[in-house]
Amino acid sequence: MLIGRVVGTVVATRKEEELAGLKLLLVRGADSEGKATGSLVVAIDAVGAGVGEVVLYASGSSARQTRVTKDRPVDATIMAIVDAIECEGKSTYTK
C-alpha cells in the first residue's frame, strides 16, 4: 500500500459500465507527514474518503481485491483513511 492525500475529484459521465456508481478521487502520493509530494493517480474510493484526507491506496492487481472493486477494471483503490502516522518513534501525522 501507498500513502497519499486526496487532492480532488474526477467526474466522468461516460465510462465503462463496470465503473458505474464508483466514486473517483484524485490522489497525490504523500510523505510520512501526510504532505502531498508525489505524482497524481485517479483512484476508486472504497471507504468514503474526502478531499484533504490522508489515505492508504493500493495499485495494480491489489486494487481489485476489495468488495467494491472485485473484478472491475481499476488500477488504484483507496482502502483506508489514515488517523495517525508514527515514523522512527516520532508522531509525524495526526488527523
Tell me what the structure shows:
The chain has about 100 residues and is mainly beta. The chain has a single domain, classed as OB fold (Dihydrolipoamide Acetyltransferase, E2P) (Beta Barrel). The chain has no helices and seven strands. It has strands at about 1-10, 25-30, 35-45, 55-60, 75-80, 85, 90-95. It has a five-stranded mixed barrel. The protein has a two-stranded antiparallel ribbon with strand order 6-7.
Features:
single chain, 95 residues, mainly beta, OB fold (Dihydrolipoamide Acetyltransferase, E2P), five-stranded mixed barrel, two-stranded antiparallel ribbon, 7 strands, 49% strand, elongated
Report the major sheet: 5 strands, mixed, barrel
Report the top-level CATH class.
Mainly Beta
Query: What is the CATH topology?
Result: OB fold (Dihydrolipoamide Acetyltransferase, E2P)
Secondary-structure-derived class: mainly beta
Low-confidence stretches: none
Topology:
Elements: E1 2-10, E2 24-30, E3 36-45, E4 54-59, E5 76-81, E6 84-87, E7 90-94
Parallel strand pairs: 3-5
Antiparallel strand pairs: 1-2, 1-4, 2-3, 4-5, 6-7
What is the structure about, briefly put?
The protein is mainly beta and 95 residues long.
